[in-house]
Inverse folding.
């Protein structure tokens, strides 16, 4: 299996007035061709910034300070803006969280699609329109010819997200970064879109980075999973293995707090405490203050180690006994 | 859309009516209408005849109806000074004022929009800081004083531009226009810039904050994620969105530009209706004051109406809502 | 998109809202500079009789032979006229210092009265709601849709010149801004639980209005008030320049500028120039404070 993307030791920091926020602090992962990576974490864990770092869209005061982003071996961290621009929307596409906000409200859908085609390929307007229409059809939008002439506000949320996905698919990208694309949608719509995307990824060989905080989404969709906490990956591995037998106490807590896994009549399980401020992370393991297993050893930052074949975790006291949370 | 339009027009008429009451009360109830409407030079006989003719012996509400009736026929009294119908007098001066006001609006967009765009796209650069400091100055500088200083520098010291008047005009459609001759241009330049100064600052600030807000929006980030060129992102995605508030405000400001031309016209002796109203106030030519007020109110209401309609054309969201 | 959430601000010990306000205001050097300049100007105006080289209204101190002396010349009275003299032989520096008095009194006075009137009506509108609210807001809309200069012009055309009439005109022109602002923030506050709690305790309406609602409307009111003072001063100057404002016996800066207008074309620039500079410095210093106050007091902009 060939590697589409390899991220090595990525660090993206935000230089704010109050201090340096290490939003992404030494993240590494790989995504193979046609593979789906689920990037999981709470809000503020740095997963969205990781996504933007890959396509070079981190805005000041933030910037990538260290690390390599190898896309088919080419390091995007050092690529110039023009080179990145040709990759964006063309070979690497991104889908955003809130479909109500991602389409420009004052431009018609056809304008927003055709410009995407023309940004990367020299084709006639008519052909660009054809391609746009086909893309709309592909994501299951009925009567695409008519819908092209509509404005975004004439679509429902789910339909808008389909339009955004259609835009992402226009150039048959090798990699799609999807930043919580179903979070803002109803559960039924969410299911449809997930199925749609899964089918597309399988048929076109597109790799996916699926950013989410929802473990149930990842369970059905991803091949690999990487759990992020406070800017670092704390656990990674094959999705089934990680969800069945999580090693890091944070992952254990995360799985434990999914409501459907709790038993009726018992109080809902939760992770105590709050996500720490990235401005002044305590020395050592960032999860220390909320971790039931923490002790003096955790005052030192643990490394991400391969504890079992294909299973990495960043913890001194991992659940190796196989807790079925 | 039609229902919406009709409702807006009805609203406008209500405001017009309300303003006519205020003007009426201002002239007829606060002041002494005899003193206001009848030339102080008139003798006793003329006076009484005029009082009867104007219906000043009637109760106030009937007087208002008479006033309204006359106003509807376009009769707003005669000027004491020029001995002409007041309305005619004002309409004759209106083209000069409109020329000045439109010139100023044009300048404010021409100068303000690019500067605001730059300041919004590069908020931390030195150029932006200079622009923003300049806009604070533009807000703070008293218009009339800037006008004087412009005259001092460009007319008195350098002698490049004339200090007053309209210069040569060309007659088109029975009206005189300065902007069609080189000499007219040289007369128009300073007053138009003077009048535009405040609006330039306004447009700069509006554009800048609009750009900064739009740049944070997901749709701009999405547009960049699609691989569009920075120029396309700026001039299509950002620009089209900020155009709505800018057009609205600039349009709405046309009224206040016409109003503030009172000051500029006085400084540069520009023969428009602003200069006329100041002269009229100073010699207490009250029929002209009343007529001016009514004309201005009508203009205002019309401008507001047009801007509202334009707004709904520009913003598809509003358009749809009004259709529904 | 919110994964980059800025961390909570570092909190100082025993921080009262007022202290935080002071420290945040003091953090901006430009705004503090504006404040210092404004305080200086205000002191100059207050202590004018002790500071000005000459009493510009005392005709006995004037010498017509000193008329239109350029800046720096020594006149027949032995005074060095640093900013020159006007056509009457009046020392411009003294004229400006006394003129500041009139400008500030009119500007600040009208702003305070307009604030009282507008804020009361705004509170009333927000609290009473219904017809009272829509009636007051209609008035506000009407007032705001009409350019300030025109409204003021018309009022003065009806009332005639005079300091008091100018103040009345400015109040009529300005009250609507305060009313709208106060109503806006009062409506937001009204929905908060603590007002409901106060109502449940059956506190008298007046007490709820002034002890509970009003203090929370203060921040935006301060911002608007600052900016409106600057606008009032500018408007007064404009009206006086047009010959509709203060009478010639109490010349404000605007009237001084108007006075120099006719001598401008013959090159005696200083009669108009320096009063204008004084006016400009006053307005800029207030606007700089206002600009920064808006940033400090507007919680929406805080990050």
């Amino acid at each position: 299996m060939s590697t589409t993307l390899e991220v090595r030791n990525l660090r993206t920091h935000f230089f704010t007035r109050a201090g340096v926020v290490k939003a992404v602090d030494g993240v590494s992962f790989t995504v193979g061709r046609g593979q789906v990576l689920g990037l999981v974490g709470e809000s503020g864990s740095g997963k969205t910034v990781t996504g933007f770092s890959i396509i070079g869209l981190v805005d000041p005061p933030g910037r990538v300070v260290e690390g390599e982003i190898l896309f088919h071996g080419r390091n995007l961290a050092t690529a110039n803006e023009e080179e990145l621009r040709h990759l964006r929307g063309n070979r690497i596409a991104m889908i955003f969280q809130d479909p109500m906000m991602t389409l420009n409200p004052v431009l018609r859908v056809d304008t927003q699609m055709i410009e995407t085609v023309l940004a990367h390929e020299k084709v006639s307007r008519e052909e660009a329109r054809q391609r746009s229409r086909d893309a709309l059809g592909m994501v299951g939008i009925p009567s695409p010819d008519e819908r092209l002439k509509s404005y975004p506000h004439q679509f429902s949320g789910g339909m808008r997200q389909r339009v955004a996905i259609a835009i992402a698919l226009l150039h048959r990208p090798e990699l799609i970064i999807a930043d919580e694309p179903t979070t803002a949608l109803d559960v039924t719509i969410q299911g449809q879109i997930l199925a749609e995307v899964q089918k597309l990824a399988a048929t076109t060989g597109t790799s996916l980075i699926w950013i989410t905080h929802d473990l149930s989404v990842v369970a059905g969709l991803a091949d690999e999973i990487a759990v992020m906490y406070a800017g670092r990956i704390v656990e990674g591995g094959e999705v089934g293995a990680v969800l069945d037998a999580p090693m890091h106490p944070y992952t254990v807590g995360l799985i434990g707090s999914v409501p459907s896994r709790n038993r009726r009549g018992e109080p809902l399980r939760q992770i105590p405490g709050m996500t720490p401020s990235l401005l002044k992370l305590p020395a050592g393991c960032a999860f220390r203050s909320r971790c039931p297993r923490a002790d003096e050893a955790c005052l030192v930052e643990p490394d991400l180690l391969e504890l079992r074949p294909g299973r990495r975790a960043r913890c001194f006291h991992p659940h190796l006994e196989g807790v079925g949370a | 859309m039609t229902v919406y339009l009709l409702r807006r027009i009805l609203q406008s008429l209500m405001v017009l009516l309300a303003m006519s009451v205020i003007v009426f009360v201002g002239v007829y109830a606060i002041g002494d209408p005899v003193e206001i409407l009848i030339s102080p030079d008139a003798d006793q006989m003329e006076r009484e005849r005029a009082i009867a003719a104007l219906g000043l012996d009637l109760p106030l509400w009937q007087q208002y109806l008479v006033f309204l009736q006359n106003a509807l026929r376009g009769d707003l009294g005669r000027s004491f000074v020029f001995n002409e119908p007041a309305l005619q007098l004002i309409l004759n001066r209106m083209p000069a004022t409109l020329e000045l006001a439109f010139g100023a609006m044009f300048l404010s967009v021409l100068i303000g929009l690019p500067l605001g765009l730059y300041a919004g796209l590069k908020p931390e650069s030195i150029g932006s800081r200079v622009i923003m400091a300049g806009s604070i100055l533009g807000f703070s500088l008293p218009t009339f004083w800037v006008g004087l200083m412009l005259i001092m520098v460009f007319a008195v010291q350098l002698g490049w531009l004339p200090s007053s008047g309209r210069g040569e005009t060309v007659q088109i459609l029975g009206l005189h226009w300065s902007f069609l001759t080189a000499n007219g241009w040289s007369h128009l330049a300073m007053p138009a810039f003077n009048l535009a100064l405040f609006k330039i600052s306004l447009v700069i600030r509006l554009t800048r904050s609009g750009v900064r807000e739009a740049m944070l929006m997901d749709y701009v980030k999405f547009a960049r994620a699609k691989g569009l060129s920075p120029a396309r992102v700026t001039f299509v995605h950002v620009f089209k969105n900020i155009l709505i508030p800018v057009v609205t405000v600039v349009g709405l400001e046309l009224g206040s530009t016409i109003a503030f031309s009172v000051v500029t016209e006085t400084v540069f002796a520009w023969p428009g209706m602003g200069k006329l109203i100041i002269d009229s106030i100073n010699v207490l030519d009250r029929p002209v004051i009343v007529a001016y007020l009514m004309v201005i109110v009508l203009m205002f209401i019309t401008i507001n109406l047009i801007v509202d309609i334009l707004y709904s054309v520009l913003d598809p969201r509003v358009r749809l809502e009004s259709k529904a | 998109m919110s994964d980059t959430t800025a961390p909570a601000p570092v909190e100082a010990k025993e921080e009262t809202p007022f202290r935080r306000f002071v420290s945040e205001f003091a953090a901006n050097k430009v705004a503090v500079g504006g404040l210092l300049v404004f305080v200086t100007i205000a002191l100059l105006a207050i202590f004018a009789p002790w500071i000005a080289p000459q009493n510009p209204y005392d005709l006995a101190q004037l010498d017509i032979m000193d008329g239109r002396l350029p800046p720096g010349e020594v006149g027949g009275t032995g005074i060095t006229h640093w900013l020159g003299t006007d056509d009457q032989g009046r020392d411009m520096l003294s004229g400006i210092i006394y003129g500041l008095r009139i400008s500030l009194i009119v500007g600040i006075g009208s702003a305070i009265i307009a604030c009282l009137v507008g804020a009361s009506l705004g509170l009333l509108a927000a609290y009473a709601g219904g017809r009272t609210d829509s009636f007051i807001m209609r008035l506000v809309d009407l007032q705001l849709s009409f350019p300030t200069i025109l409204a003021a012009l018309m009022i003065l055309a009806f009332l005639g010149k005079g300091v008091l009439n100018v103040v009345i005109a400015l109040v009529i022109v300005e009250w609507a801004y305060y009313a709208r602002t106060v109503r806006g923030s009062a409506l937001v506050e009204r929905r908060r639980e603590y007002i409901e709690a106060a109502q449940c305790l059956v506190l008298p309406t007046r007490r709820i209005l002034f002890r509970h609602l009003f203090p929370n409307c203060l921040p935006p009111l301060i911002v608007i008030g600052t900016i409106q003072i600057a606008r009032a001063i500018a408007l007064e100057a404009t009206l006086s320049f047009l010959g509709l404002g203060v009478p010639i016996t109490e010349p404000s800066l605007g009237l001084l500028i108007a006075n120099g207008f006719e001598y401008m074309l013959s090159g005696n620039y200083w009669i108009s120039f320096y009063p204008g500079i004084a006016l400009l410095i006053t307005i800029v210093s207030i606007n700089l404070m206002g600009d920064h106050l808006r940033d400090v007091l507007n919680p929406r902009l805080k990050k």
Summary: The longest strand of chain C covers residues 73-74. Chain C has eleven helices and two strands.
